[in-house]
Design goal:
It is a single chain. The chain contains two helices and five strands, in the order αβαββββ. With about 110 residues, it is of the alpha+beta class. The chain has one domain (about 20-95). The longest helix has 15 residues, at about 1-15. About 15% of the residues are buried.
Length: about 110
């Protein structure tokens, strides 16, 4: 009975895990990069650093805020693509609620 319960718990944890695709952004056009991120909702994009080409950079990019955590927002970011140096995508950025002075209550 204990082994059945343990197997059930492990299968539930494994069922919630979702794989995320990884792409090399410099081997695709900007339209392809944007289509992949939009189609999958979120993707990891890899590219070489412009300052130090031996350095591999990567990031998680999303189609909109739905793919961010509750304390994050989707901000504009740029990645290099095969046809351009700055392809517009969105990236989840952690936000401090105190930074939004508009939403503060007046005392």
């Amino acid at each position: 009975m204990k082994s059945l319960l343990l197997a059930l718990c492990i299968s539930l944890v494994a069922a919630e895990a979702q794989a995320i695709s990884r792409y090399n952004s410099t081997s695709m056009s900007c339209a392809e990069v944007q289509a992949r991120v939009r189609g999958e909702g979120a993707a990891i994009l890899r590219y070489r650093s412009t300052r130090n080409p031996s350095l591999q950079l990567y990031g998680r990019y999303v189609s909109d805020r739905r793919y961010c955590n509750h304390n994050e927002v989707a901000e504009t970011a740029f990645v290099p693509a095969a046809d351009t140096k700055s392809c517009l995508v969105r990236e989840c950025i952690i936000v401090d609620p105190d930074d939004f002075f508009i939403f503060r209550r007046r005392r």
